[in-house]
Q: What sequence folds into this?
């Protein structure tokens, strides 16, 4: 008997666990993993949807370090600014946390071929873990995705399907291909198992920082899987008594693609207003879990801000030149947003802040200086 089911986080409807990325049949929300029974971990270890430890597909993901950024933190100025170096995961981004769980469940359920769509990092991650698990992967990508990311995806022997047009066209093509060929659509945007895997971020933060938890965590957000997973993890740790309070969680987007910022702040914005951004990892004009992200921001006292392209590139340079951290533009966007949050006094001088550096700079190199 399985110890999990799929539950709608919006209306509570449940159904037996499977590999379907199908949304709730009642309200249309993406589903989450629900536990029917868990072993007593006293809040130390995140519960897992994987039934047998031997079925885990892993490349050694997680346990990424938190490092203090003295120069940028002092410039803002903050009490303590830390970066959690998520780009030190096996394929160079935080996505490995979610992929490891999603592919472990897929392998356990006998999946031999799957489909995913990604602007880069998730595609590389799913490709690597699928290769590890002996599963054939089809990755649908934007035709203009960064070549560095496409090279990485292809390196794992994946079949790559470039699709012209907006990001939403890539998703539509992937879904159609999966349906036409009766394959599993292993979507990092919709899969309940992917979101479940990112919870380990919160568990590690608590383990690493113990009684010195930050008051704020600032995320670059596209589909929001890391923010959602972090919140769920912190919430479990709060319920177990391991922590007394959840940090305030904040969302940063590019001003060129800002559906969450607009919705949270009551601004007018639609997918037709989207423009190309250097922060390709958060270039999502219609997030599938938008309501869930907005609810998390409200529950934690968080906020949502948009940043200019020039500010993203400035912080990418500052992170490298002042702190020795070469992060991709998507990661740098969160630091640009942090500056705005401090300027707006949402995060106050002297506060402790954590920012995940979500992806490595070599995966999405900056444009040459003019």
A:
């Amino acid at each position: 008997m399985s110890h999990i089911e799929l539950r709608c986080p919006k209306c509570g409807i449940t159904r037996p666990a499977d590999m379907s990325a199908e949304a709730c049949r009642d309200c249309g929300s993406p589903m989450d993993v629900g536990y029917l029974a868990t072993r007593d971990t006293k809040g130390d270890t995140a519960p897992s949807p994987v039934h047998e430890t031997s079925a885990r597909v892993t490349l050694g993901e997680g346990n990424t370090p938190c490092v203090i950024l003295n120069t940028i933190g002092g410039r803002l100025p903050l009490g303590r600014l830390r970066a959690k170096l998520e780009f030190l995961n096996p394929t160079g981004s935080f996505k490995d946390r979610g992929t490891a769980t999603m592919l472990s469940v897929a392998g356990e359920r006998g999946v031999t071929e799957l489909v995913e769509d990604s602007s880069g990092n998730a595609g590389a991650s799913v490709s690597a873990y699928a290769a590890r698990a002996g599963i054939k992967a089809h990755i649908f990508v934007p035709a203009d995705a960064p070549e560095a990311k496409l090279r990485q995806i292809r390196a794992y022997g994946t079949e790559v399907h470039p699709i012209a047009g907006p990001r939403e066209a890539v998703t539509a093509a992937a879904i159609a291909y999966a349906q036409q060929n009766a394959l599993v659509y292993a979507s990092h945007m919709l899969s309940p198992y992917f979101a479940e895997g990112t919870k380990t971020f919160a568990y590690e933060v608590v383990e690493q920082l113990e009684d010195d938890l930050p008051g704020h965590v600032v995320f670059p957000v596209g589909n929001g899987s890391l923010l959602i997973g972090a919140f769920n993890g912190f919430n479990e740790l709060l319920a177990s008594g391991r922590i007394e309070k959840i940090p305030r969680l904040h969302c940063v987007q590019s001003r060129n693609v800002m559906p969450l910022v607009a919705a949270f702040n009551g601004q007018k914005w639609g997918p037709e207003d989207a423009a190309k951004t250097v922060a390709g990892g958060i270039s999502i004009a219609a997030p599938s879990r938008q309501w869930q992200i907005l609810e998390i921001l409200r529950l934690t006292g968080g906020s949502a801000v948009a940043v200019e392209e020039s500010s993203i590139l400035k912080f990418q340079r500052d992170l490298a030149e002042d702190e020795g951290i070469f992060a991709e533009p998507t990661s740098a966007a969160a630091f640009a947003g942090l500056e705005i949050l401090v300027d707006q006094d949402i995060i106050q001088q002297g506060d402790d802040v954590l920012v995940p550096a979500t992806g490595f700079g070599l995966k999405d190199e900056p444009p040459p200086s003019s």
